[in-house]
Amino acid sequence: MLIKKPADILPSEITPQRLFERRREFISRSGTGLLAxxxxxxxxxxxxxxxxxxQTAPSALSxxxxxxxxxxxxxxxxxxxxxxxxxxxxxxxxxxxxxxxTVSVEGMVGKPRRxxxxxLLRVAPLEERIYRLRxxxxxxxxxxxxxxxxxxxxxxxxxxxxxxxxxxxxxxxxRIMIRDVIDWPYTEGLRLDEAxxxxxxxxxxxxxxxxxxxxxxxxxxxxPWKYGFKSAKSIVTIRLTxxxxxxxxxxxAPSEYGFYSNVNPEVRHPRWSQATERxxxxxxxxxxxxxxxxxxxVASLYQGMDLxxxx
Length: 311
Ligand code: MTE
Description:
By secondary structure, the protein is of the alpha+beta class. It has one domain: Oxidoreductase, molybdopterin-binding domain (Sulfite Oxidase, Chain A, domain 2). It contains nine helices and 13 strands. The radius of gyration is 18 Å and the shape is globular. It binds ligand MTE. Ligand MTE is lined by residues 1, 77-81, 135, 170, 186, 215, 228-229, 231-234.
């Protein structure tokens, strides 16, 4: 995610942009895009990075591409509530208490319900889903998430026929999280048919263990055909609605980040091309694939839509 609004930039928004540029310099100097965060992550006390093993079954929906380095996935993060540098979330997310944690599933549903996180772990059998993740900043990773389809949870609350969208609201605690940059809490949204698609995952783990805080513990969204910023972290509310929900980055810079945010090499970000990407840990750039390589499964959701307009 990138922050830059030259004309109307607020003083509070200047620092993140400066930090971002410093980070870019570091990435291009180090060549691989790795990894200030990993060193810090390993330097943390073990209590700050406690995760537990999860029982999982493999999924037929996984890619067979080689996994990205675990230290990259858990040390090079965007979780702006904990700071704007890629290394900040691994350093700071342990401040977030993960129990008790409840998730309210509400709005246009027949059976609204507040789930305890430990109940959510039993909503459906946990699967390991190895997905490509393509970030709007033009880097990508291959990540072994552990989770269950969002559809399994939505089924339990019985969406009403009038529900058209799903809004995700994430945890915000100003005592431990930053106060500027965007309008908190971080929110995201999907159309209901996107939310019900079998690829759309609620992740509770990564690399066979519960999520570390910086990856969105205890529950985050993963939508592999969309840019990474759709993956709302540390979710507390899932709300079904008949109106397109406002999303955090779209509110911040509507001309740069749309509601759909499908990976699309043909639609430029206003300030850079989306035609190629660099996989974390590699030097070469590779072409970005339509819908991040998931076109066969998801292109039909957008039939007849002008994807340049609905970016
Ligand atoms: N969720 C919250 N709550 N806050 C954030 O800042 N950043 C998003 C997304 N989810 C973000 C968030 C962005 S920009 C990206 S690219 C992905 O998380 C990164 O996920 P990862 O750090 O697990 O790779």
